[in-house]
Amino acid sequence: MTLIPVEIFRHVFEYFSDDKRSLLSCLLVNKRWCGIAVSILWRDPFSYIKGTSTSLITTYLSCLDVNEREILVKSGIDLKLLFEKKPTFEYAEFLRKLTYVDFYESSLAWLQSITEEKINNNDSKIFIITKELCKSFMNKCPKILNLNINLEPLHFQLPDNFTDYVAIPCFPNSENSLSQLQVFVCCGNYDKKKIFMALSKYSKNISTLYIDYYLDDNITSAPTSLALLIKSQRSLQTFRIDTYYRSLSKIIPALESQHKTLKEIKFRGIDFEEGVTFAPLVPCKNLESLIFMTCDNVKNEATKPLESAHFPKLKKLVFHVEQSRPPLALPSLIVNNCNTLQEISLGLPPVDSQDDPRIIETIIEFCKNLTTFEAHLQIHQLESLLISCNHLEKLIARGREPLRVDEFLPHIGKIIPKSLRTLVIHAIWSFTPNTLKEFLDYCIAPLETIGFPDCYAINDDHLFNFSEYAKEIGSLKTLNIKSASRISRKAFETAKSVIENIEHCGSYCDEDEEPKSVIENNEHCDNYCDEDEEPKSDIENNEHCDNYCDENEEPKSDIENMEHYGNYYDEDEPKHCDDEEEE
């Protein structure tokens, strides 16, 4: 009988590559199926588990060559129990996504599992184990497609020579294993210059580049090397840079070299220095997303070239700045691209009426195809927006002052477009339960998410109306009432039986106490729990807390909640598939 080619099987297996249970079942069919399933499971093994995994580290260490083992042994790391049996597969060669922190944290857990002494999270042995594993991957993996060296999750002081441990692109044979690299993430407080230089020589196919210079030293920031890495790419599509405040004048011009392919540019937490200009972005005609998130010093001189810029494919514009007023070019940028813009998010400081650039009015007049919008809005602007933009699917409106909206809210219900699915009002609004009922009765949109996160006046009657709406319409999945402290636990639990996800601060009024009126709710809200009970801390009140365990029941440990990586012959390590006769 003619055998089906392996590539056909591989193509079929890709359809359920996210289904760990099915892949594990395939391991037991025959040798061919086993090999294909193993190659999928081990290309990004941490995607199938939660948290750390000592068994993965055990398996990878078992695959080390003699020379690699000797380095660990000389460093005082006991490996004598690992090599009793040679693994069936060379698991390291299947890896396609290498995330440094995953291997570091699992190496820490593994090292702790073989010693009785407490291991510090910055112990040099952990760095050595992780480095040797990464060197092994560079030697054995034919292609790493995703390399993540984001060290921000490591919340401790890094050693002085730390770059030597994480400079993976400088390890032997990296020029081969990283030659097809597609995604590169490089974040943290360490010298990145030689990493950028190495990749610029042999990684020419990066499509996503994410750099964070947080706390990086002036000497080690390597803006020139980053610019060289950008220019060396054949088709960079996504560029993101975070928390940076110098030498952008060297980096932004390099983006023009990718003008044919760039689709997304994101600046986050950037303090733009003098001399920066966004003129190099103007030729990027395939740009679909332009984001300025919590940036400062986005000045008129820098943005002036954007005043006449036309991006034929621009769909998303995010502009959150912390300066005194938005740049003059912003309204023109919106008008020039109004036909394609579908998502706009603005975070602008308040301005005097005489200095108002009328950006909201510009959006209302010209951007008829919006599906997502977020901004500070006045009442009349919110009304005009809902009438004008009748394709809206998600609206997040923010207000600066407390308002009584009993007359306005039902009217909003009447003009909400049918397409709306998410409505979140970040403002201190107060309204009666009957007003809310009118609003929900008038609303013809099947809302999936409703949010009044700053409305502390919401009580049990309001919650009842939300529940009735959810039962009647059947679409409401998420309700955000984080600040509501006038509801009882009983009403909350009743609503939870109808609404899948309720975001709430966890503070309830006394169940034996009559809920206070809406007018009383407008007063300050400290005194809602039993006076004999210790008030909750700020942290407790800010967290969502909808799981209440029995006080007599021992809480489950983290280990009990962890999911293990597969059903293997030995439960303590990944399955090594012995050769089987092919059926």
Automatic annotation (TrEMBL):
<feature type="region of interest" description="Disordered">
    <location>
        <begin position="531"/>
        <end position="583"/>
    </location>
</feature>
<dbReference type="InterPro" id="IPR036047">
    <property type="entry name" value="F-box-like_dom_sf"/>
</dbReference>
<dbReference type="InterPro" id="IPR032675">
    <property type="entry name" value="LRR_dom_sf"/>
</dbReference>
<dbReference type="InterPro" id="IPR001810">
    <property type="entry name" value="F-box_dom"/>
</dbReference>
<protein>
    <recommendedName>
        <fullName>F-box domain-containing protein</fullName>
    </recommendedName>
</protein>
<feature type="compositionally biased region" description="Basic and acidic residues">
    <location>
        <begin position="536"/>
        <end position="547"/>
    </location>
</feature>
<feature type="compositionally biased region" description="Basic and acidic residues">
    <location>
        <begin position="554"/>
        <end position="563"/>
    </location>
</feature>
<dbReference type="Pfam" id="PF12937">
    <property type="entry name" value="F-box-like"/>
</dbReference>
<feature type="compositionally biased region" description="Basic and acidic residues">
    <location>
        <begin position="573"/>
        <end position="583"/>
    </location>
</feature>
<feature type="domain" description="F-box">
    <location>
        <begin position="4"/>
        <end position="46"/>
    </location>
</feature>
